[in-house]
Design goal:
Blueprint lengths: L1 H15 L2 H8 L3 H15 L4 E3 L4 E3 L1 H5 L1
Antiparallel strand pairs: 1-2
């Protein structure tokens, strides 16, 4: 069940290209979204997002997922 939640959070971030907007859409905190995406990345052994303080983009693996 946790994997489904993490995947849902990742998809929300990928669609919004923002942790904050994804959090609002999902009704959770941005920190909860970030934690869920990190857990998904660890589980899959892949980096799904390029993160900086001002920008988010999908990695090639993130695009494929």
């Amino acid at each position: 069940m946790q994997m489904i939640r993490s995947l849902t959070m990742f998809l929300a971030v990928a669609n919004a290209m923002s942790f904050r907007k994804a959090a609002i859409d999902q009704g959770v905190s941005p920190q909860a979204v970030s934690k869920a995406v990190k857990q998904l990345e660890m589980h899959l052994g892949l980096k799904l997002l390029h993160r900086s303080t001002r920008h988010i983009s999908l990695t090639e693996d993130g695009e494929q997922l």
